[in-house]
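Obj.: predict assembly geometry.
Materials: sequence records (below).
Method: joint structure prediction, all chains together.
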Amino acid sequence: MRWRKKSPRAERGYSLRRRLIGTTLGSSILVGLVSTVIVLAIARKEVNDAYDDWLEEGARLVLALGEGSIGRTAGQPAAGDTQPALRLDYQLVSRTGEVLLRGEDAPKLPFVPPDRRGDRYYDVRADGEDWRVYVRHHDSLGFSAQVGQEMDERTDLIWDMLESLAWPLVGLWVLLGLINWFLIWRLLKPLARMARGIETKSPSDLSPVAEESRAHEVQSITAALNRLLGRLDHALEAERRFTADAAHELRTPLAALASRIQVLQRSHPAEQAPALAAQLQRLRADMMRTTSLVENLLQLARLDPQSGDAMPRERIDVPGLLQDAVDACAPAAAARGATITIAAREKELVGNRDALFTALRNLIHNAVSYGREGGQVRVTAERAGQHVALSVKDDGEGVAPADLERLTQRFYRVLGTNVPGNGLGLSIVARVANMHRAELRFGPGLDGRGLGVTLLLPLDMNG
Amino acid sequence: MRILLAEDDLSLGESIESWLTLDGYVVDRVTRGDLAHTALSTHEYQCLLLDRGLPGLTGDALLRALRTRRETIPVIMITARDAVRDRIEGLDLGADDYLVKPFDLEELSARIRAAIRRHDGRPDTSLRHGELAMDVAAKQVTFQGKPIELTAHEFAILHALLRHPGHVVSRAQLEESLYGWGDEVESNTIEVHIYNLRRKLSSDLIKTVRRQGYRLAD
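Observations (raw structure tokens):
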């Protein structure tokens, strides 16, 4: 069982931190732009109002100037006096539309045809430029003063303003981004810590995640998570307890049953009642099968990850271990006429002797039971790189590739074998392998036939 | 040979009792720890089979009490708890042996014989005295090299005498080794068995010690 399995969703996920920074920064840039537009619009209106007043004032001046100059020298303006003081593009237009007097840069033709009445502003196009023009009529003399200003002048002012606003704004955005990044990084730190805390959790350690943050949101997540961990721990513990208790509680009745059968066998010897004796023998075999199932269940419960962590490790004499495991299977081997050979080239390894003994015994027992009648079983221990390889090989039928994968599942038994068993043996082996961080490999057996099971135990497991 | 069996499972207790009776032992069976304690203080037993999880007084507490009183009776623990830790704990409490349920009754018999043998300080399974030899496991007696047929009671009496050759064994002790609770003891039974033994073996092998009991001749 892999605990830290990466969910496929994680690949398509996003970073909360980046998204937070992105959205806060994005929204402040948007607000900045909108406010700049508003500022510019207001500024433009104010500038327009001020310039319009200025045009109106200019028109009044030009009208006064016109009054004087027309009275003094008809048609010729006293250029030297007024023009430098009045930096305006003005025209003094007669009733007939003739430009009597004009500023240096003012167009030669009147801005506005003289037939229009009333004092007012015009937006016109003259000499290929846009102009803002104010026209003021002289009530008695009949001419009008037309004062214009190029629109570009006003727009340039707005652009200048924008330019001077832009850099401080960009600076503010950068500052805001940095502050946001720092704050979000700091605020999200408890989450990262929590994630690290959760990552260390495993079926063997379901202790609560440390709650460091004072943020309510984080606290509620941690609290919910710890409640969940608690329930999970409880459920695992209950399952473990149930298996252990059930197996334990079954022992006494099993012992009673087994003993009764034995007493019966003794009081009805085969010479006196052969039929009964045969039945009793069968009964006893069934009894032993049940017993071994219960034993295996207990073994599995005991090899559970919880107790696995506290598994004591020791230096193991490998040849002795192999010999003991083979001896334990000797009766079964004798019954099947199988020959077991041992080759222990590796002399020592570190691990839990009881667990490894159980694993080896199960493997050898399987090899004997599922191998050929009168077949060979070879038990070896050798160095393979950074591992010690303990393998058990037989020369029997072997296992179909389709069945290989499911071999270590609890209660799984290959169909069509007439061998009594409960399908727990290999899951115990797998559990022992797991406890030792060892790899369990299935391969070919002896002489290209049968099944070979190898336990690859890492050498550096003393650490 | 008298054995006290303290086991709270009635069926298992019954089977063990039947088996050990077939072995020729006298078995007293109790289902509570406190009753076992009482039985131990009123009778003499050669072996105690003790379940750990007894009601009344746990097997552990009973064993601790026994060993505190320096009782050396061989104790074999019978339990469903098979973890190495449990075995170590049981043996350290003072048990001589530890059997995990379910067990083979043949093995139980062998372990009882071994425990008694160790307790008596004998290395092998046979008892010898002069020309008399007894194989306890095989229940065979030979005298002057010839096999002798004995009844279960005769065997038990001879066994009691052979365990401590030279010592005087009282009539009461012999009766204890023959009868369980509730068995009717006839006043002259022991004499009858001794008479038969002398007849089958040799008339001067078993000496009567007046008002004390019997012992084997030197």
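Conclusions so far: The two ends of chain A are 22 Å apart (CA to CA).
To do: check interface contacts against the pulldown list.
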